[in-house]
Records
---
Amino acid sequence: MIPLEDILSKVNHSREKRNYFANLILDHPELLPDLLLICARVDDEISCRASWGLEFLCKQHLQTILPYLDQFMLLVPKVHQHPAVRPMAKICEYLVLSYYKEKNTETKKFLSISHREKITEICFDWLITNQKVAAKAYSMTCLYLLGTEFDWIHPELKITLENNYSSGSAAYKARSRMILKKLK
């Protein structure tokens, strides 16, 4: 098999390339630990490409990452390049939606309380730091749903959204309005 890095060097934002990559990992799940290690090279551009591929994999088959959540949760707070933060935030959103909205039994089995607490911490960090709007929007959704379990989250989320509303982009304001409306 061609080394994973060589394959990743050809992955771009096109749906076709990301789909090819996701299917490769689905066909060879033994490559997932290596993919996570490449994602963890947070200062290297290839980590962004690896993150895009991981997001597409999780979109198609979220259960693939569940046995690796401990490794994933250690990785996510270290990710800092905007092109990699967005897919990590999206994966967190997939996990939270699967757990709280879809009530998926596999996700409920693997996504522990410590994982959910870590996602909460990460999402608040993304909301209050200089991130692109997509990561902030995914974080708002995660925090809203996590707040249905952890009662301290909704009041903090409300304060954070209200405090940052005036300086947010149009997209940030739109998502904030939607979440704030749900919080009332």
---
Amino acid sequence: MTREEKLQLILGKNAYNIDDLVSIVELLRLPGGCPWDMEQTHKSLRKDLIEETYEVIEAIDNDDPVLLREELGDALLQIVMHARIEEEAGRATFDEIAGDVCRKMIHRHPHVFGQGKADSVAEVLSNWEKIKSEEKSRNTVTDKLNAIPRQLPALMRAAKIGKKATVLDFPSVESVLSKVREELGEIEAALAEQNADQVLEEVGDLLFTAASLARLVNVEPEEALTRATDKFVSRFAAVEENAIALGQNLADMSDEEKNKLWENVKKMKICENFR
């Protein structure tokens, strides 16, 4: 089918499906298509893929089905764009990519598509990890640690690393709390020595240890930090509003005055409206 025939086919429709989306992206990138789409590469689209993923998450967190539908479409567009780039390079078609993931899902769900057995979520996850390790030839814990993408948000990666490395773990919550206190002392020592590199390292150790603490007390660290950040923003807004009501600029106030406003806001529990 020629480009013109594909174009007329698309324009003659009132309803579209995934095959049409694949065709639309192809038309955008063919000669005579869209100059912007034609010059995109995997690397140039990397940021867009990340942003669209987070916009899907925002719609989920806000329980907004209308926005979720839109953002899922935008995320799907990113996948089709990357698949098209692969097809143009002669490495894989969209159907081949979809076929690969279909085979993967069938293989990793033997309790549905085979003779396997898994009556609980725990069994499903255990089987999944075992099958995945066999597929990827990950025979050691180190293999599994190195397989966790370095490009993940640092806190999320730290949590995943800790979960995989439980063969070398803190024996108790108290032991990890002790480690937190130890890391704080090492930060203080590095600050006293004015050693910037050491401060960087010790702060990193503290954050990694905090991720371990979260895991041991069954807290998702990304969620905990998101909630804490939202709480700070809400309290900050209340403090700033109070300063304006007093006819003052927050930046011009003394530390004592700002702390007084902050403590007043805390007492009023101005954090109930954070998401």
---
Amino acid sequence: MKKQLEVQDKNVESAILSGLNTLNKSREDVDIKIICQGGMFKKAKVILSYEENEAINDNQTSTTEESISEKKVLENVSDTEKIEETDEEKMSEDYIIPDQETKIRKPEKQLIKEDVLEYCSRAKEFLTELCESFKITSDVNTDIVDNTLVINVNTDKPDVLIGYKENVLSALQNLLYSLRKGRERFRLNFDVNNYKKEKVEKLKNLALTSALKCEETNRNVHLDNMNAFDRRIIHTTLQDSTTVTTKSTGVEPNRHVVIMPKN
């Protein structure tokens, strides 16, 4: 049975995350409709549509003001209290990263191109019209990598689609999720000029270099403040290390990863 949950919060991202936390669902399990983007004097409003298959905890509320997850690139969605690293953060899937995904879900039907052809057509049309409105050239490419639909826009003005602290990139990914219809359920990774792919490689190299320093000095290595997406890359890169371990500490936006010797 199809059900809906209306959520209001300080911005669209906070509202979506609040709703997902209330429903105990991931983005792939719901249809997201943005009713109001919000602003200085009004809250953002979204509607999450989902198939009812499990009960919702009555003591959870859809209008909570707290940041509810370490799952977002946007750093304006911050923690309200200091917390230590949890498995949820280490395995968060706000963005699926090709060839660096932590397998935490049950096996699913293999995604094939025929399943997403109609969606790809809608996504390309949306992104092409968006770029035209900004008067920038664009070439929208789609592919399937590790059972994930990857949409990459090549443009002469990538900063316009990435935005400050990746806020535009994040918002566009959410809009692309909202374009899904009916039972279209698949993982999605949106990128601009392979920005995220290159960023992942840089963070992997940072993790390995810092781990080596930790081994050589036998002392903790504190990295610079990072958002949840960046911290996740550090954690997953070093999660199988036999010599070091990692944790996040601090309060957003001053939350960072600490690499520590295992011995």
